[in-house]
Each structure stands twice: as structure tokens, then as C-alpha cells.
Predict the 3D structure of the following.
Amino acid sequence: MRFTKMHGAGNDYVYVNCFDVPFPKDPATLARKMADRHFGIGGDGLILICPSDNGADARMRMYNVDGSEAEMCGNGLRCVAKYVYDHGIKRAETLQVQTGRGTLTVDLEVKAGKVDRVRVNMGQPILEGARIPTRLGGNPPLDVPLGVDGRTLQVTCVSMGNPHCVTYVERATDELVLGLGPKIEHSPMFPARVNVEFIEILSPREIRQRTWERGSGETLACGTGASAVCVAGVLTGRTERRIINHLRGGDLELEWRESDGCVYMTGPATEVFTGQWPE
């Protein structure tokens, strides 16, 4: 089975073109094997690029490194769009991609016949606590206390089709990200588990982010997380509607537009290599 390794700002996945090969019988097990960084190809998970069942140009199915299926991945979506264009599935500079969040529009920046950067309309944030979902109070919870491992953090919760818990810190240290991240992910306050963003404010238009991703651990970037952070910053009065987000794997540009209420994310998409998986 042919695969392609791609990343968006360091958020790396193994991609399989299911226009050419059948959908795997057991994608969860396949994801665990292929994404293993010691015994497999290595990555934050597996993304299957499939024909859409609703008339979109393609459908994205995403599986984390632990085999769990996730609703959405912004960095992964940018890479799906690049693959669809570069590999000739659809040669158009605006694409519609079906995801677990719904069908999203992506605009491509093409250089020398290849996609360089992609802008994704991430849709409107989900702000109702029950739909995020979280048991914390508020629609959404804004700077509410969350007790974890004997500490109390102030957190803001937003969904971009998948749940996010944002906390603002002076420094996003390993102690916080690697120590508290997995404990927040599995907190009983989040019935579907949660992605956790630790944010340093550099200015009203610039932040630094580290992410503990549900089902994958720390990732070098998280597009839905960056989008959720853009919303959280506006709702808590910390940042403006347009920001630059510095992630460990690169920078993303975010804008939460007043005109349509949607979050727009722009960033790179990179193909690394292709290969043949023996199974």
C-alpha cells in the first residue's frame, strides 16, 4: 500500500490515497502500526484521503497514534488539500473537503505548480458547554477554575469540531505540557477527553503555543487548537481577532472574522516522502 508522509508546521501524519486503494478494514490498528515512531513510519497519526459521499472534492478521515478517530485536524486538512491538488485528484485552487466537522472550504496558494500554503475556513466555533463537550460551567467556560493534580488552573474551553481547553501561562514548560497535559486530557470535566493548549501572550497580536493533543501527546502544531486559541483570546480580552501563533513546528496566521463568525487559518503544507507499506 502506497503512503505519503506530510506535515503542516511539524504536525506530521501518514497519508493514504483511498481514491486508489480500498478503505482499510481496520484503520485504528493500521494507524497504530504506521504512526509508531520506532517500529513504523512515524507520525502523529494516519489520515485517509477518500472520495466524498456528499459531493465534496475529497473526504478526510483522521486517526490518532493511539488508533482513536478524531473529528478534525487543521494541519492535516491543509496537507489533504495539497495532496488533492498536487497529485491531480482535483486541480482547483479552491477545494471543498468533507471532515468530521462538516465540509470545509480551503484556498490554495500555488507556486511553480505545487501548493505552498493553504487557508482553511475552519467554520464557526462551538461555544455551548454541552456541545464542546465539558462539564465546566459557562457557554463557553471563560477563565474558570479547573483542579488537576492538586493545582488549580484558569481555563477557557472552545470546540472547533473537537474539544479544546486553553490555559494562559507565563511559560509553557515541560512540567505543564507533559506533566499536566495528559491529566487535563483525561479530566472528568471532559467526557470526550480534550486537547490542551498552553499559551504565552507576547502581544495582543502574537502568541506562543504548546499543545497536548488528545490521543497523540505533544504535537509540534495543532490547527484546530490554534483556531480555538484565537477565539479564546478574543472572548477573554487578551488578544485581537487577527493573530500570529508561534508553534514549535512553525507559524500559523489566524483570524476570527466578525463578518461571518468563522475562523480562518493560514499555514504551510509540506510533502516529505512517499513509500510502500508492506501490508
Notes: Residues 145 and 185 are 15 Å apart (CA to CA).
